[in-house]
Amino acid sequence: MNPSTKWPSPGIATAQPQAIRTHATLDERMVNYGMLAASRPLDISLDRRQVLKSLGYRSDSEPSPRIASLVDEYIENARQLLEPRHAYAITNVEWVHDSVAIVGGSTIFQSRVIARLLERCSMVAVFLVTIGNRLEETACRLAEDGLILQSYVLDAIGSEAVEEVAQYVEDMTRETARADGLVIGKRVSPGYCDWDISQQNEIFKMLDATSLGVQLTDQCLMVPQKSISGIIGIGPPEGKVDEYNPCKTCTRQNCLGRR
């Protein structure tokens, strides 16, 4: 069976990224700061090697010709299933003490690792990205039809795609910060280190997630699953936020996300 017969019509247009202004109370400089890079076109470049890594292949190994052909075909066809969107806002870091940080006047982040990050920062970018639900729905249909391998490959491509959207937000935040002589830290998401996943609620309060089609379950998991939320610290070079690695202070053992 040719896997490509399962794809929706190529006529489906890929949605353009959306930037959401979420803080009407920010002063004009901060509003402009948060919006400067938001209108740039989004071009997702799917990394074949990263897709293979998600499938369990080491950097020095190559899949069989059949698997390689399937991966290449699905990478090409998956683009019509992507609806990349993002929301982000840049706001002030107001107060940090021990394991608590207050940003944007009223948002409270509770995490020792996040507090150590934000004490080096004057501002923080809060973001949410997604590729929509079409890819997930197609992967589910493939699995229901017994095409487990095809579903698995498509899921891996979706993981790489949403990571690329998050990288886009990180890159434009870095460029915007650089224009003001500032630097940025590593992206961090709820559930990472000691930052409880329930803090997704704080991020969703700051951003218009509904317009992106992203919702939280009672367990604070995102739907669609191919979505990423988090923060990026911004500060002066002397604060060395760009050198801060939360993994060095995290006590979690055997973490797959360790950097």
CATH hierarchy: architecture: 3-Layer(aba) Sandwich
How much is the average pLDDT? 83
Radius of gyration: 19 Å
Q: How are the strands of the biggest sheet laid out side by side? A: 3-2-1-4-8-5
* Shape, per Cα inertia axes: globular
CATH class: Alpha Beta
Proportion of residues in β-strands? 15-25%
Count of distinct strands = 8
Summed up, the domain count is 1
Helix/strand/pairing class, anyone? alpha+beta
Distance between the first and last residues' Cα: 41 Å
Following the backbone from N to C, one meets helices and strands in this order, namely HHHEEEHEHHEHHEEE
What does this protein look like?
- The longest helix is centred in the middle third of the chain and has 32 residues.
- With 259 residues, the protein is α+β, with helices and mostly antiparallel strands.
- Helices cover 35% and strands 17% of the residues.
- It is built from eight helices and eight strands.
- The N terminus is likely disordered.
